[in-house]
């Protein structure tokens, strides 16, 4: 009952997280049916309804969706775990092949982004900009992600942030591997530095900076992956840990009004965002316990397929919602927008992955040819 057992199902878990994120974004578009309830507001609003159970469940479900940010932190944490274990297996001697590593990350993140983002930013540079000509400077500004780092655009922020995190990971790996205490120092620097950075003119990037701790925590958990085994705890203690983690996740997602808890640019605002890293750990503890009880998830193959396309699904559906929102058609579909966006995200993500493979195929062919030549020599 440790994270290794969970990692056997990581693709299925990525699939669940991708579905959660799609539903979260759709819930913002259709405002279904309400969001950000505290426990007291939830109870009062529920008691006022004639059909209390049904409306109460809808509000509870809506609040759960509105905390879909947690899915991003869980994704970041798992990415940190998997990358650390991969680095330890390949570069345990300390000699990191940076070029090989970055090339693999580029093919996995940068190329899908360039493929999927191209039509969206082209549309923004003509239609949304209300020009009769193609605004090339605006297109480059957005397409290169400069508008995120130096402007006010948050479109596709997750893909842009994960690119940066991957670039930073060799340093994160070296520090965490050298001593766990350096990981805690790194977290403290991120917490403090992130607060002042987010109060600066670059406040827009707070959405990315506040997710970096989950990534680092994932690496720290991976370093001690075998020591952090729930089976080592007495059964009673193990039950208490799992129960408290479940309660923390339940309260943190179903009842905590994360979007309105504090005013912008205040210390509590960023402190609340950072609590998602702790909630992600609690979520992982619950999932580790579940995986210790079951051999496989229901629909595991389907979820694993969705999980393999998680990045593409994210990019496709969030950019589609951007276009739909501009024309004000997203709200016309109501709850039907949930299955529509999920289906389109999977289909569009799959098509985008095929396009990415076609683009990378010549490079893979050259690599295989080079390796074959080396073997002959």
Description:
There is one protein chain. This protein is an all-alpha fold and 377 residues long. It has one domain. It contains 17 helices and no strands. It is globular and about 70 Å long.
Keywords:
17 helices, single chain, 76% helix, mainly alpha, 377 residues
Quick take:
The chain contains 17 helices and no strands.
Helices, by number, come to: 17
Whole-number tally of structural domains? 1
Summarize the main sheet.
none
Binned, the helix content reads: over 70%
Q: Uncertain segments of ≥5 residues (pLDDT<50)?
A: 33-40, 257-263
Q: Please, what is the average pLDDT? A: 81
Beta fraction:
under 5%
The helix/strand series, from N terminus to C terminus, equals HHHHHHHHHHHHHHHHH
Class by alpha and beta content:
mainly alpha
Task: Give a topology summary.
Blueprint: H1 3-7, H2 10-30, H3 39-47, H4 52-66, H5 69-91, H6 98-128, H7 136-143, H8 146-150, H9 157-178, H10 180-198, H11 206-209, H12 212-223, H13 235-255, H14 267-293, H15 300-308, H16 310-326, H17 337-376
Helix pairs in contact: 2-5, 2-15, 2-16, 2-17, 3-4, 4-13, 5-9, 5-12, 5-14, 6-7, 6-9, 6-16, 6-17, 9-10, 9-12, 10-12, 13-14, 16-17
């Amino acid at each position: 009952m440790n994270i290794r057992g969970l990692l056997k199902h990581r693709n299925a878990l990525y699939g669940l997280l991708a579905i959660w994120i799609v539903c979260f974004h759709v819930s913002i578009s259709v405002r279904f049916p309400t969001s950000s309830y505290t426990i007291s507001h939830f109870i009062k609003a529920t008691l006022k309804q004639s059909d209390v159970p049904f409306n109460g469940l809808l509000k509870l479900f809506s609040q759960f969706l509105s905390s879909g940010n947690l899915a991003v932190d869980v994704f970041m944490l798992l990415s940190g775990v998997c990358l650390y274990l991969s680095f330890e297996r390949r570069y345990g001697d300390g000699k990191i092949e940076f070029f090989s590593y970055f090339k693999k990350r580029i093919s996995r993140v940068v190329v899908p982004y360039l493929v999927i983002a191209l039509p969206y930013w082209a549309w923004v540079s003509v239609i949304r900009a209300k020009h009769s000509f193609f605004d090339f400077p605006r297109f480059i500004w957005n397409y290169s992600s400069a508008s995120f780092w130096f402007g006010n655009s948050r479109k596709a922020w997750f893909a842009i942030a994960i690119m940066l995190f991957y670039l930073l990971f060799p340093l994160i790996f070296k520090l965490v591997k050298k001593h766990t205490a350096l990981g805690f120092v790194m977290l403290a620097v991120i917490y403090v530095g992130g607060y002042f950075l987010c109060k600066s003119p670059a406040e827009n990037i707070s959405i990315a900076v506040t997710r970096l701790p989950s990534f680092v925590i994932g690496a720290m958990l991976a370093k001690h992956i075998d020591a952090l085994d729930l089976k080592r705890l007495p059964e009673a203690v193990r039950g208490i840990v799992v129960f408290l983690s479940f309660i923390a996740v339940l309260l943190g997602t179903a009842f905590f009004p994360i979007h309105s808890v504090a005013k912008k640019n205040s210390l509590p605002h960023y402190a609340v965002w950072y609590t998602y890293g702790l909630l992600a750990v609690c979520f992982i503890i619950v999932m580790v316990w579940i995986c210790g009880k079951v051999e496989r998830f229901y629909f595991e193959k389907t979820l694993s397929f969705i999980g393999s396309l998680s990045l593409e699904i994210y990019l496709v559906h969030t950019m589609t919602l951007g276009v739909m929102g501009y024309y004000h058609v997203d709200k016309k579909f109501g709850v039907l927008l949930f299955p529509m966006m999920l289906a389109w995200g999977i289909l569009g993500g799959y098509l985008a992955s095929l396009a990415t493979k076609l683009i990378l195929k010549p490079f893979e062919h050259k690599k295989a040819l080079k390796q074959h030549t080396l073997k002959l020599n």
